[in-house]
Design goal:
With 466 residues, this protein is α/β, with parallel strands linked by helices. It has three domains: 14-136, Gyrase A, domain 2 (2-Layer Sandwich); 161-230 and 404-447, Four Helix Bundle (Hemerythrin (Met), subunit A) (Up-down Bundle); 232-390, 3-Layer(aba) Sandwich (Rossmann fold), CATH 3.40.50.300. The protein contains 15 helices and twelve strands. A six-stranded mixed sheet has the order 3-4-5-2-1-6, with helices on one face. Helix 7 runs antiparallel to helix 8 (199-231) and helix 8 (199-231) packs antiparallel against helix 13. 39% of the residues are buried.
Length: 466
């Protein structure tokens, strides 16, 4: 039997691969500031720091005030220098931070001096990548660093901190432990039993797989919420001409972003804006009114609108208020051959200020909101509807974590293999294979088994110096 205990994939260590490869980068944003930080990591980081400060030694984790010298011995700046010996550092290597004055000219000059001393310019995300490869953080935690930097709400920031502290990783580890235990139990039974697996053993395996299914389903729902927090929701605002889509778009963005006119077909091109409503980030696109008629330019806009529907995670259909809303919705969808079967949908009935006594019912049994983009009446109802539509209800928000599309995909694949394992529990070899595939899919999340291409794509999105 293949040893399952040894299946944890060893990540290559930077210490093994990079040798004396030392990296340096400005870790603070560009522009002028009171302080600018330069970070070094690698075997020569300490030596580079001694050369540029002309000191004989640096006490670990101690803030040294020092002059910074160029190659001719001229003072370039004054800085606070801190040395973090590996492996007790962010990257797991020797790390030095130079906290100088935040002048781009000065900071860039210091980096050039360090390059002469043997430190090359770091690639985007290379510090975090080294931390991952040296097992200081896993892949989820590395991505959480980026999520925290780009958080657009307090909820997103809190969720990113939770991921950074290992909340998501521990959930995945718990599932992995159960999965490995079930695999060991099943494959040991296959290898050492001379007869078919007994009823009690099979019942135990079936219960274990059922429990794993439930755990993955719960984690998947929470990961989808985390994806909303970290990445936002691609949202397409669609509808017939003159429904008030652009007015609604402007109402949400609180700006005159889109042109508003009583002339049908005014919106010809996509108008995009990113906003945050009640801690939910929306990547909005206002689209051309969809109809069969229209000139050539308008038809190009309509084609783009159809494309937005297929790409959107949430479709907001805006209809003008009328006494025949069900019929209007049907005409809009069927007349333009639009399918919303696989989309999350909110129907917005706009211009209710023109018919204040209208009976507010669900349209086609879809989530429906009645509002006026002109007066703002009903906009709060839209926000509540948004939360109901895009977020899965959780027992507690305390342990909310950020997630990414790749995490959701991996969990869905894991769940699919577990469901197949449950169906094939009577055919032990097939069941064992599905459990193995489930473990491989789950390992992709934390990076225990990840391709070089995946790692490259993830860390390329980081800033230089992180």
């Amino acid at each position: 039997m293949e040893s399952l205990v040894k299946q944890k994939i060893k990540r290559p260590s930077v210490r093994q691969n990079s040798g004396k490869d030392t990296i340096a980068a400005i870790a603070t944003p560009g522009g002028y500031a009171g302080v600018g930080i330069i970070r070094l990591s690698g075997d020569s980081a300490y030596r580079c720091a001694l050369k540029i400060t002309k000191k004989t030694q640096l006490k670990p984790r101690y803030a040294h005030f020092s002059k910074i010298f160029d190659l001719d011995g001229e003072v370039v700046d004054e800085a606070v220098v801190i040395f973090f010996p590996g492996p007790n550092s962010f990257t797991g290597e020797d790390v030095v931070e130079l906290q100088a004055h935040g002048s781009p000219v000065v900071l860039e000059k210091i980096v050039k001096i360090l390059a002469v001393y043997g430190a090359r310019m770091a690639n985007p995300g290379e510090f975090s990548k080294r931390a991952f490869l040296n097992e200081k953080i896993d892949l989820v935690q590395a991505e959480a660093v980026l999520d925290l930097i780009h958080a657009q709400s307090e909820s997103a920031a809190k969720a990113a901190v939770n991921s950074l502290q290992g909340v998501f990783s521990s959930r995945v580890a718990e599932i992995l432990d159960g999965l490995v235990h079930t695999r060991v139990y099943l494959e040991a039974s296959l290898d050492f039993s001379e007869e078919d697996i007994g009823h009690e053993t099979r019942a135990y395996i079936e219960r274990s797989i059922l429990s794993l299914n439930e755990n993955v389903e719960l984690t998947l729902a929470e990961a989808k919420n985390g994806c909303v927090l970290s990445q936002g929701i691609k949202t397409a605002i669609v509808g017939p001409p003159n429904a008030g889509k652009s007015s609604f778009f402007n109402c949400l963005t609180m700006a005159e972003t889109a042109i508003v006119s009583s002339v049908a077909g005014t919106t010809r091109d996509l108008v995009r804006e990113n906003i945050t409503l009640e801690e939910i980030s929306l990547n909005l696109s206002d689209t051309a009114g969809i109809r069969l008629a229209g000139d050539e330019v308008e038809q190009i806009g309509i084609k783009k609108a159809r494309g937005e529907i297929t790409k959107a995670q949430l479709v907001v259909v805006v209809l003008p208020v009328s006494s025949s809303l069900e019929t209007d919705m049907q005409k809009f969808l069927e007349g333009n051959k639009i399918s919303l079967a696989n989309s999350k949908v909110i129907v917005v009935v706009n211009k209710v200020d023109l018919m204040p006594e209208i009976c507010k019912t669900k349209i086609n049994n879809m989530e429906t909101v009645y509002l006026s983009a002109l007066t703002g009446v009903g906009v709060k109802d839209f926000v509540m509807s948004l939360r109901r539509t895009v977020l899965v209800q959780q027992e507690s928000a305390e342990n909310t974590f950020t997630a990414r599309t790749r995490h959701v995909d991996a969990l869905e694949l894991t769940l699919s293999h577990l469901q197949q394992a449950q169906k094939n529990v009577m055919v032990e070899e097939l069941c064992a294979e599905e459990l193995k595939l489930a473990q491989m899919a789950l390992n992709e999340i934390t990076g225990k088994y990840s391709s070089d291409n995946l790692l490259g794509d993830i860390f390329a999105n980081f800033c230089i110096g992180k």
